[in-house]
Amino acid sequence: MRLNSNIKKLFTGFLALIMLLSFASCGKNIAFQNSSVVPAAEGKVSVKKDSNKNYSIGIKISNLAEVNRLQPSKNVYVVWMETENSVVKNIGQIKSDTGFMSSKLKATFETVTSFEPSKIFISAEDNADVKYPGMQLILTTNRF
């Protein structure tokens, strides 16, 4: 009886490990390249495909300068996604956290899209609803 119980525990643990690894392998973590505009900025992008075949995109950035301190000054950081078909889409704006309790300039962003991203980048813009990215590219990933 004890042998059957140990085998069940071993099998259950093995099954749990396989499930954990399969969920972990479903996502991609991609680092942003170094920025020439905001050299101290560092960040990563997480892309995961969900059960509805949508893509969850999460971004975490540290040391991101306030957008109005850039040269030339801008009003908002805009997050862009490039699809496999080289279509570029504005997927939202990002704001830096410069509050009293924040020791570094941090920013986060989350969204869900039905399009599969192949590259993520951030530009500084005058308006959040722009249709095409401007010339002030802040952070970008390689194609993934």
How would you explain this protein's 3D organization?
This protein has 144 residues and is of the alpha+beta class. It has one domain. It has one helix and nine strands. The strands form two sheets. The chain has a five-stranded antiparallel beta sheet with strand order 1-2-3-7-6, with no helix packed on it. It has a four-stranded antiparallel beta sheet with strand order 5-4-8-9, with no helix packed on it. The relative contact order is 0.20. About 3% of the residues have low confidence.
Strand content: 35-45%
Count of the domains: 1
Over the alpha carbons, how many angstroms does the gyration radius reach?
20 Å
Give helix % range.
10-25%
How far apart are the termini? 51 Å
Question: For the report, how would you describe the main beta sheet?
Answer: 5 strands, antiparallel
DSSP, total strands = 9
Which stretches are low in confidence, meaning pLDDT under 50 for 5 or more residues running?
A: 21-25
Order of helices and strands: HEEEEEEEEE
Number of helices: 1
Give the class from helix and strand content and strand pairing: alpha+beta
Biggest β-sheet: strands ordered side by side in the sheet:
1-2-3-7-6
Note the overall shape.
elongated
Q: Write down the overall mean pLDDT.
A: 85
Quaternary organization: single chain
